[in-house]
Design a protein that fits this description.
The protein is mainly β. The longest helix has 9 residues. It has a single domain, classed as Porin (Beta Barrel). It has an 18-stranded antiparallel beta barrel. The two termini are 25 Å apart. Strand 6 and strand 7 form a beta hairpin.
Length: 505
């Protein structure tokens, strides 16, 4: 447990996150373990400095999006060919994350900053020009600042309190979202109990909203709590975990000033939603070259009838919908372990329920909380685990120890045509077009459920022990649902490419 108390370097964080994902692209390891230049120098001169952690993570990523992706046209007009819809966007993301940490026998502390900029980016909030960029957060803000008290080798209980990342399971519901230039943290308190039979994290707090040019803070109107259990002795060959999450957003949140807070960190609709789940996954090598995973999720509670885009005076009095929804993930894979390139083929199926009617007073759209969606439903980030079938085939191999290649294909279908197509931030593609006119992504029950197909190629190379390069290329083939929704507007397929450099200093 002690290693988790350090604020790790970005590369190591990503490696740890995706090592649990049998079919997810895995960045190649560095030629040798590297803690950073300052850490290496200090620990060489003084072994006692191993308790300290000083360093900087630097990341730069150039992205090019054509015909889909968040631009000034908004996701409502993805794939549109209307002249006024500028769906082409290219920009440079930069992120600097300095950190300092200490880990003792019974006490640990971490302080981590973050400076993130998006240059040449068209994703802005018209109501707050220059503030609402989705991946820009200014000169320097506080990403993490927490203390940890405990030692699970000697005592079963520990406490972690302060600004911190939360990441559980495969990050389908709760993740740090480090792919995003701003990433995600919580102002939270987390109590952990761990013994030989089971472990549990019990936490409560609030997500931190990114507000450019202002200090990022959590909002007391938006509370997130939960308990996450692991059972190491239930099976010698499986990872078994169970969880219960509660997100409680009061009506007062819609009266707060959120004009400068950009998606996907914008304030949500009022809600009281509870999620229970079970995750079972084979341990590495437990079934030789085969592996599998299952995750089942169920939600209940209530939520406001619409998203808080309406005036606050109206939003406060919106009726609540009775909420019942569910999701499931099934996956299996095979690795040719005797081949030095370790080729791997995996098939995954992800399902998030949709709403059967917009007028019955009920809500059936699964809410996937605080996920790292980029890991699962296509690198173009067009969908989330809401009203969606995602069928994914992934092939990966490592031609060299420091070179990884992944080729993936996705089939996307709406779970119900009586509900919206939701973007990666969980927001419906909801325009003012009339049903059946082909002028926008309204709810069209008579339209096809076939959203489209995506193909992704990702190549990662650890050039040195401190530099990692990643290249991604994607194409989205629009399906009948997209063509029908915008038939009067005209549509075309979309492309995406990125080149990323990560430095561990």
């Amino acid at each position: 447990m002690r290693t988790t108390h350090h604020t790790t370097l970005l590369v190591l964080t990503v490696l740890l996150a995706v090592s649990q994902l049998h079919a997810q692209y895995t960045p190649p390891p560095t030629p040798r373990p590297f803690p950073g230049f300052l850490n290496e120098k200090l620990r060489t001169s003084d072994p006692y400095m191993a308790a300290w952690d000083f360093g900087v993570n630097v990341r730069a990523r150039e992205e090019v999006k054509n015909d889909a992706g968040f631009t000034d046209a908004g996701s409502n007009w993805d794939f549109s060919t209307r002249p006024q819809d500028d769906n082409n966007n290219s920009y440079l993301l930069t992120r600097l994350m300095p950190r300092a940490g200490y880990t003792g026998k019974w006490f640990a502390a971490t302080l981590e900053g973050r400076s993130s900029y998006s240059l040449g980016d068209e994703r802005y909030a018209p109501a707050a020009p220059g503030k609402g960029l989705a991946e820009r957060d200014g000169q320097l803000d506080l990403h993490q600042a927490f203390v940890f008290i405990g030692n699970h080798k000697n005592f079963p209980v520990s406490l972690k309190i302060g600004r911190q990342e939360l990441a559980y399971g495969d990050q389908r519901l709760v993740g740090h979202f480090r792919w995003n230039n701003n990433a995600r943290t919580f102002d939270a308190a987390k109590l952990r109990w761990q013994n030989a039979l089971f472990g549990v994290d019990i936490f409560t707090g609030g997500v931190v909203y990114n507000d450019h040019d202002n200090l990022n803070t959590a909002n007391s109107q938006d509370r997130f709590s939960g308990a996450y259990f692991n059972f190491p002795t239930l099976s010698s060959r499986e990872i078994v975990e169970a969880y219960f999450f509660a997100r409680n957003v009061s009506r007062g949140i819609v009266s707060d000033d959120w004009s400068g807070v950009a998606a996907p960190f914008r304030f949500p609709a009022p809600q009281d939603i509870y999620t229970g789940g079970l995750r079972i996954k084979s341990k590495p090598g437990a079934y030789d070259a085969w592996d599998y995973g299952v995750e089942l999720m169920y939600q209940f509670g209530n939520r406001a009838a619409v998203f808080p885009a309406t005036p606050p005076a109206t939003a406060k009095t919106l009726p609540r919908l009775d909420h019942k929804a569910y999701a499931a993930v099934l996956q299996g894979g095979y690795t040719w372990t005797e081949n030095k390139m370790q080729p791997r083929l995996a098939l995954l199926y992800s399902y998030g329920s949709g709403d059967s009617s917009s007028t019955d007073g009920n809500s059936g759209t699964f809410q996937n909380l605080f996920p790292t969606n980029h890991l699962f439903y296509g690198f173009m980030d067009l969908s989330s685990l809401q009203n969606m079938h995602d069928i994914r085939l992934a092939y990966t191999l490592k031609p060299l120890p420091t070179l990884s290649i992944a080729l993936e294909g996705h089939l996307h279908y709406l779970a119900r045509s009586t509900d919206y197509w939701y973007n990666v931030a969980g927001v419906p593609r909801n325009t003012a077009g009339s049903v059946g006119t082909g002028t926008g992504y309204t709810i069209n029950p008579s339209y096809s459920k076939a959203v489209g197909k995506e193909i992704d190629l990702v190549i990662g190379w650890s050039a040195t022990h401190y530099a990692q390069i990643e290249l991604g290329l994607s194409h989205y083939f629009r399906g009948d649902y997209i063509k029908q929704s915008l038939s009067s507007v005209g549509t075309k397929d979309a492309n995406y490419a990125y080149l990323q450099l990560t430095l561990t200093l």
